[in-house]
Structures are given as structure tokens and as C-alpha cells.
Design brief:
CATH architecture of the domain at 33-108: 2-Layer Sandwich
Strand content: 15-25%
Order of helices and strands: EEHEEHE
Low-confidence stretches: none
Largest sheet: 5 strands, mixed
Helix content: 10-25%
Structural class: alpha+beta
Strand order of the largest sheet: 3-4-2-1-5
Number of strands: 5
Radius of gyration: 19 Å
Distance between the termini: 49 Å
CATH topology of the domain at 33-108: Translation Initiation Factor Eif1
Shape: elongated
Mean pLDDT: 84
Amino acid sequence: MSKKKNTGGIVYSTDPDFRPESDKPEEVETLAPAQQQLKVKLDTKQRAGKVVTLVDGFIGKAEDLEKLGKELKTKCGTGGSAKDGQILIQGDYKEKVIKWLQDWGYKAK
């Protein structure tokens, strides 16, 4: 196995101050619940016909997204995941999720 660094296709540079750019996205601060514009919808695409409740539009750190996702999954009593600014809850819990998010101070529709 090769232990080469990913330099984005750059092999050689004559610039002595050159540093390859990292592809890591910068973490943004988590907005307050009242500033979050969350959209809750049902989705079946690419899920073998199974329904999932999708909470989209979360802006913030991955840890905070995971925490909110875990809280929602616990309330619904079901599984799911939280990544890339989205929370997936297995099953049709749209109305319950909207109610809980609004009770917690989030702007959800």
C-alpha cells in the first residue's frame, strides 16, 4: 500500500511557498434554535419504498446535529441517522417531529 498524500493532482510546484489546499470544510458555529430554518418532509427516494422523515437545513457543528438527531430518534422510538446537515428518522413521524422541534424553539415547517 502506498502512503501518498492527496495533493489534488499537483505533482510539482516551483513556488517555494506553495501549500496544497485541504478539502476539509470549515465547521460553522451552530445557530440558535430560533435562527434555524428546518424543513421536515417525507421521503422514499432510493430507500426501497420505505418512508423516512427527513429534517433538512440544520446549520452547525456535526456534534450538535448528532445530538438533535439522537433526541428525535429517542422521542420517535425508532432508528435513523444524522449527517451532512440532514436528520433521517425511519418511518412517518412528520407531524410529531414538527411539533417537537417547535416546542424546542426551532422554526420548522
